[in-house]
Design a protein that fits this description.
Layout (H helix, E strand, L loop, with lengths): L1 H25 L1 H8 L2 H22 L2 H9 L5 H25 L1 H7 L6 H26 L3 H32 L5 H4 L10 H17 L1 H5 L7 H25 L1 H9 L4 H15 L3 H21 L4 H28 L1 H4 L13 H18 L1 H5 L3 H26 L5 H26 L6 H24 L2 H22 L7 H11 L1
Length: 509
């Protein structure tokens, strides 16, 4: 239980920075969707889906490889600097290649008139890939607060610059042009539009790099070729896993423009609507990401413990992940009529994707939890195969469902494809894992919580059909309390604090 408490504490720290950071970035969505039409915001969503894939490629599984080898090495510093030099070299190579071949790459991405956007994002993703290794070192060394601080600084700088470039600069150009015209006008000023989003991202990324200089310079750089070969041998299946996984996660935004080449404006609008609405479901992604930051060091640390304690820790981690993920799902869905106002009414046609994507992300989070068996047993090739299966399913379902639904709601096909694919690989991972590394997951308890959440969700949806919204919100809040009460009862969580019990005891006398 001590391990679970430590995991919960670190998840809270990472989660706070992740939740606050993503929430604040999420608050930029209203700015984008109210300032730019769906087809322009679609370009932003489309490009960022490609950068997510490029980031995984440029990291080639070295984050997890670093945790694996550093946790077993008597010289973890050498593991760190070897990974740092390797990823730094490949990131520099990527930057050079993208600078040389920017024209054909932009045309291949169906954005021949947006070369500058593509180039800026290429530079951003290369720097992000490099800085992921120092961030991994902070996680390994339990420097959660420094990790969280730098991540939040990145968010604040990015948000501040977005507001400055998109809102303040156009106003200043009218009232005091001399303050901003020297840099604002050369790029096109207000007509540069969504380009300022990428400029803000570039600057905030450079700020992060400067903040990580102590992790980059206050080190004696050692490069161990033999160690790198072992790390690559361990990590290359994770690279395939990561590529397939991130392609699956971003499949909808990436594939829609290629499926409707005869209707490019409508396709970009669909990407924009889909991208804006899945931002509402991002709360589940934030929780999964926060859990992931703490979980990877946790599983390798627990591997040193006794077998029974280790297996119990893994099972408890899964159970509490499901408990909190279901709570997040209910919270978002119960208050969606309020949350939806974060995006423009012009984008509300895509709200139906929110519950589908939240359930899909829950399945993906469970799949990530199940990955412990192949990471601990060094059978990372199984993770690769399952990610490839997920990718094939995702691609096939998108190619079928998106054109079948067609314009303007084809994005719903991408959401359904994500749900079907994640659910399938979740089941596959569970049954294969039972053979190689059986963990006594509390399926009955988790099934009970899932059934309860489903009943409450259905009841909450029914309430909206028959009662006024104020009463609906009150009742739904009571439903959330019921869910928490059931969990507290079954998990033997004290429902009344010792201090409150003492107060009540005194009141009787």
């Amino acid at each position: 239980m001590a391990g679970i408490k430590a995991l919960a504490k670190e998840t809270a720290v990472y989660g706070l920075s992740s939740i606050i950071g993503r929430f604040l970035n999420w608050c930029l969505v209203p700015l984008y969707v109210y300032m730019f039409p769906a087809e322009e915001y679609g370009v932003v969503s489309y490009l960022y889906s490609f950068t997510a894939v490029a980031l995984v490629i440029l990291n080639y599984g070295m984050e997890t490889g670093y945790f694996r080898f550093a946790s077993r090495s008597d010289n973890p510093e050498r593991v760190y600097t070897t990974a740092l030099i390797s990823v730094g070299a490949t990131s520099l190579l990527f930057m050079a290649l993208m600078s040389v071949f920017i024209n054909p790459v932009s045309e291949l991405m169906l954005l021949p008139d947006s070369k500058l956007y593509v180039w800026m994002l290429a530079m951003i993703v290369a720097i992000d890939a490099f800085t992921n290794i120092p961030f991994a070192s902070l996680r390994f060394r339990k420097k959660a607060y420094r990790f969280a601080g730098i991540k939040l600084l990145n968010v604040f700088v990015n948000i501040g610059l977005n507001l400055f470039f998109i809102l303040a600069c156009p106003a200043l150009m009218k009232s005091a042009p001399w303050l901003v015209s020297w840099f604002y006008a050369p790029l096109g000023g207000e007509s540069f539009g969504i380009g300022w989003i990428f400029v803000a991202n570039m600057i905030s990324t450079l700020v992060v790099l400067l903040c990580l200089l102590p992790e980059l310079t206050l080190r004696r750089l050692e490069f161990d070729r033999a160690l790198l070969r072992r790390m690559l041998s361990y990590s290359w299946p994770l690279l395939i896993l990561g590529i397939a996984g991130i392609l699956s996660q971003n499949m909808g935004q990436m594939i829609i423009p290629y499926l409707f080449t005869d209707h490019p404006v409508e396709a970009r609008a669909m990407v924009g609507i889909y991208g804006a609405n899945i931002k509402i479901a991002i709360v589940m992604v934030m929780f999964t990401q926060a859990f992931r930051y703490a979980y990877e060091p946790f599983i390798f640390a627990q591997a040193k413990n006794d077998g029974e304690n280790r297996l119990r820790a893994y099972a408890d981690a899964m159970k509490f992940f499901v408990v909190f993920a279901l709570l997040i799902f209910l919270g978002v869905m119960f208050y969606l009529p309020v949350i939806k106002h974060f995006v423009s009414p012009a984008y509300w046609s895509g709200l139906d994707v929110v519950p589908v994507m939240m359930i899909a992300e829950l399945c993906f989070g469970i799949f990530f939890n199940l990955s412990v068996w192949y990471k601990i047993t060094d059978r990372t090739r199984w993770g690769m195969w399952m990610s490839l299966i997920c990718f094939v399913l995702m691609l096939g379902l998108n190619l079928w469902l998106v054109p079948a639904i067609g314009i303007p709601n084809g994005f719903m096909g991408s959401a359904l494809a994500a749900l079907g694919s994640y659910f399938a690989v979740m089941l596959i991972s569970y049954f294969v894992g039972r053979h190689y590394y059986p963990i006594p997951y509390q399926l009955g308890r988790m099934g009970l919580y899932t059934l309860l959440a489903a009943i409450l969700y259905a009841g909450g949806a029914w309430l909206e059909q028959v009662f006024a919204m104020p009463l609906v919100y009150v009742t739904r809040t009571l439903m959330l309390i019921i869910y928490l009460g059931v969990v507290c009862t079954f998990e033997d969580v004290p429902k009344i604090s010792p201090m409150l019990r003492r107060v009540l005891h005194r009141g009787k006398h």
